[in-house]
Amino acid sequence: MILHIPVENAYFVFPIAVGVTYPAFAYVLGRTIGGKEVVGVISMVIVTADGASTQFSVAPIPMAIATIFLAGIAMTMISAEIKCKKRLLLLMLIFSIAAAVTHKIPILLATGATTVYMFYSTLQVIELRSFEVITGDYYYVVFFPIILFIQWFYIAPYFLEIIGWLKAILIEGTSPDQVVTVYDIEYQMAEVVDFPIMIDLIYSGYYILTVAIGGICGLVLLYLYKSRQVRILQSFCLVTVLMTIPGLFLYNAPGYRRVFVYATIFVAVLIGVGIEYAREQSRLVQKEVVILAIVLVISANLLSPLVAPDGPEKATRYLTSKEINGKEFTNSKVDQTVYSDVFFKRKKINIGSQTAFSQSDQIVGPPPNPTNHGYMHEELLNGTLRDKEYEYVAWRTDVDIFRLFGGEFRLKWKPETHLDSNYSKVYTNSGVNVYKREKR
Question: Where are the transmembrane segments (predicted)?
Answer without folding.
Answer: 12-30, 61-80, 87-103, 138-160, 205-225, 232-253, 259-277, 289-308
